[in-house]
Design a protein that fits this description.
Number of strands: 6
Strand content: over 45%
Radius of gyration: 15 Å
Order of helices and strands: EEHEEEE
Helix content: 10-25%
Length: 138
C-alpha cells in the first residue's frame, strides 16, 4: 500500500511474491466472494470482470515501477494509458488465487511498456500488453 495509491475497494493486489527492479514482478490477487463487483457480475454466476484482471496487472506494474526508480522520483500517480493484445482464456471465480506476472518490455522517458499474464493453479487465464505513464504529482 506504500507503493501505489489504490485502496479498497479498488486495491486489486494482495501481495508481492517477487520483484526484480527494472525487470519483472510477481503479485497475488485473492479473489473473494465479498468483492462488490460480484453483486452484479453476475448474480448466481459470479466471475471477476476481465478488465479488473487487467487493472490488477497494471497495479502490479505500478509497484514494479516504484521499485525501479530512485526514491526522489516517487511523487506521482501512474495512469494506465494503453491496453493491447488482451486475451481471456477463462474466468476467475471467488476462491481463486490469481498469480500476476508482469515483465517490463521497454521504458522510453516516462512511458513504460509491459507484458503480463494471469494464472490460476498454473493455468493461463488472461494476458495483455499495457502502457503506463506518470501523471499529476502526489
Amino acid at each position: 500500500m506504500q507503493r501505489i495509491p489504490h485502496r479498497f475497494p479498488f486495491l486489486l493486489i494482495d501481495g508481492i511474491v517477487s520483484c526484480e527492479p527494472g525487470e519483472s514482478i510477481v503479485a497475488v490477487k485473492n479473489v473473494s466472494a465479498t468483492e462488490p463487483h460480484f453483486l452484479g457480475h453476475f448474480p448466481g454466476h459470479p466471475i471477476m470482470p476481465g478488465i479488473l484482471i487487467i487493472e490488477a496487472m497494471a497495479q502490479a506494474g505500478g509497484v514494479l515501477i516504484w521499485e525501479s526508480i530512485a526514491p526522489g522520483e516517487r511523487n506521482f500517480i501512474l495512469y494506465l494509458i494503453g491496453i493491447e493484445k488482451s486475451r481471456f482464456k477463462r474466468p476467475a471465480y471467488p476462491g481463486d488465487q490469481i498469480l500476476l506476472t508482469v515483465d517490463l518490455v521497454a521504458r522510453r522517458q516516462n512511458l513504460w511498456r509491459f507484458n503480463a499474464k494471469a494464472e490460476v493453479n498454473g493455468d493461463l487465464i488472461a494476458s495483455a500488453e499495457f502502457l503506463q505513464a506518470p501523471g499529476k504529482s502526489l
